Amino acid sequence: MQNQRAIKWAFWGLLVICLVQALYIFISSPSRPDPSKVVSATNVSGGGAVYEVLYDSGGATVADTYRYFLMEVQPNDEAVLEKSKKMEPFLVTKSGNAVREVTGDKVKLKTNNTIYKFVNISIFKLNGEIQIVRFELDATVP
User: Fold this and answer.
1) Average of pLDDT values for 28-56?
2) Does the model's pTM come out above 0.90?
3) Which residue in 68, 88, 110, 113 could disulfide with 138, CB within 3.0 to 4.6 Å?
4) Beta strands in the chain (DSSP E)
């Protein structure tokens, strides 16, 4: 009987250690870095804009990345940077200046570098109405 009791205590002790370790890993994992600056803003669909935001906080060993966000037109760059922290970008790439042409609610993009994420439809709210914007991506390998 004492052997079973020791096994139970060992099991629960190891389980607690594993849970504490998992919690530590979850809490200490890095989150998305803060944006550095707004590189460009392109007006889209009457009241919206595509904002190109540079993330260069990776240091010397991590390449700069550009994240492209669709949102309503913001009054200044600080507002864009603050709002972009709470949003998901529709395009994440190493290539800057990806926005090439805007026609109504359609945006043509072109990159010639690594793409980490791309979503071809995005939305933003303008005066309580949902505005849909479609993206066409032309990507080539350098």
Assistant:
1) 86
2) no
3) 110
4) 37-44, 48-55, 65-72, 91-93, 99-103, 106-111, 115-118, 121-126, 129-139
